[in-house]
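Hi W., the PRP complex you wanted:
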Amino acid sequence: MLKKDIKEVLFTEEELKKRIEEMAARISEDYEGQELLVIGVLKGANMFLSDLIRKIDLPMEVDFIAASSYGNATKSSGVVRILKDLDYPIQDRHVLLIEDLIDTGLTLHYLAENLKSRTPASFRICTLLDKPERRKIDIEVSYIGFNIPDEFIVGYGIDYSQKYRNLPYIATLKPEVYA
Ligand code: PRP
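Structure:
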């Protein structure tokens, strides 16, 4: 049973769905008349991206990039590696980068600088969750689902030691699980 490790549910399936619909409506409005290139940051953003794009009413293409700064550790090492690059060029495209969580900002800063150097027509960041008090480097984020406190969370794509990604909600873990 996965549930035995859960301390508290922070966002239920219904709460996530409602907020994601609001975000998708904003994005659809902001980019009206344009074609999007949505880029998901694997693996964590996978579930958020697939729910979000089904609610965006715009023509789009989807690509993925995989980066890791954590490995199996719970703290960012600050060293970002691209594990899988995009399949296609992004020059002159309207790029919307999708993340599950911004913590120190180191991963996203690295990815944003890397992608912007490929000269897209525009570049914006969308994240489901943000932990602003943990930020080590400034980044401009256009769409934020929820600000959350500095707590260790799992579910809806987000892992602890590669597990719990399949939980349909976002929750905190009991301390004994990661102690
Ligand atoms: C998580 C998350 C972000 C990053 C945020 O990814 O998806 O990419 O950490 O942390 P930061 O703001 O401190 O850089 P992780 O490296 O755990 O990989 P995953 O998405 O495959 O789980």
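The CA atoms of residues 60 and 127 lie 18 Å apart.

W.
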